Amino acid sequence: MVGSHSMVDTPIIDCDVHQPHPSREELVAYLEEPYRSEVAKWGPRRSVSSGIRGEDGGNRRDLEAARLSDPAYFREALLDRYGHRFALLSGAFAPIAGMPDPDYVNAICRAANDFYREKWLPADERFRLAIKVPLQDPAAAAREVERLAGAPQIAAVSFFATANRIPFGDRYYWPIYEACQRHDLPIHFHPSTGQTIANAAMTAAGHATTYLECHVCLPQFYMAQTASLILNGVFEKFPGLRVMLVEGGIAWLPHLLWRMDAEYKGLRQQAPFLKRLPSEYVRDHVRLTTQPLEEPRQTEHLIQIFNMVDADHTVMYASDFPHWDFDEPTRLPRSLGETTIRRILHDTACEWFRLPQLATA
């Protein structure tokens, strides 16, 4: 991020924290047959990889894997250090994104969700969990939402958002949306660029050749998915649905909003479900997160982007801890002002996740 900021009294709600995937032994303890025997003998199936180098992504190399498997380390290194009030555990997508077998993915999601509920959530009351669901089978995904909705510390439903064949505006996903709306759970869209062989390519131009290239092109997915959701009338069909777009930046949003509104005025017959301009759905239904923010050479250009996207209402803080491009909450530009910074770090997410409001002095 650009600039620096210090507000020690500002509480933090972190919208993207990556606890590790369960180990082989941990999965076996929570899996049912036939997958318990399979994983016990052979280990988890390898993710369907893109073939690009992935070791440059992921966790910081200065952090030991053994420490990352301990919830106490996250409490000490993140929650206590930065003054977190809540932290959303979003996990990893490599074990499920791009997998062609829906039954296997469903079993892995259920086992991982139960593992985190038993081993991670009790470790700190500030943890919240984004549950994994098998997008390969929307009916099974909806059942998993039904199974866990209302359980303590369950705060969101997590979608892998770049390794999928069908855009999110398609009615294929309606069973999941209906369940999320009924239980008032937001959807947490997160990149999964490395797992794409069984799915669409990782950029609009085709398959990238490097992790660097696909990482740079992540905003393309969120532009397409946001347009798909809005122009296909998903938020009219499900007026209580809320989605958050994580790790895609924010500078792409003004261009998309302007273009959708301009094209809609001449082609509105192709979006008959809409009752408002496309851009007007964003404030009610869409949120972006700060990590990773664009980094222009001139800070004032970033401030202009914040103004264009109505950051007081649409942007929330995410650290991406413990990944290599982790962003501390103290990195927001001072010139945003205390009110905007507090809303990004806490207030907007507090409203979005229906968390208890802080008592005011």
Characterization of the model:
The model is unreliable at 1-8 (pLDDT under 50). Strands 1-2-3-4-5-6-7-8 form an eight-stranded parallel β-sheet. The longest helix is centred in the N-terminal third of the chain and has 18 residues, at 102-119. With 361 residues, the chain is an alpha/beta fold. It starts with 11 loop residues before the first strand and ends in a 9-residue tail after the last helix. The protein is globular, with a radius of gyration of 20 Å. Helix 7 (174-182) links the parallel strand 4 (154-160) and strand 5 (187-190). The chain contains 15 helices and eight strands.
Helix/sheet category: alpha/beta
Q: Strand percentage, roughly?
A: 5-15%
What strand line-up does the widest sheet have? 1-2-3-4-5-6-7-8
Helix content: 25-40%
Low-pLDDT segments, ≥5 res: 1-8
N/C terminus separation: 31 Å
Query: Count of helices?
Result: 15
Number of DSSP strand runs: 8
- Multimeric status of the protein: single chain
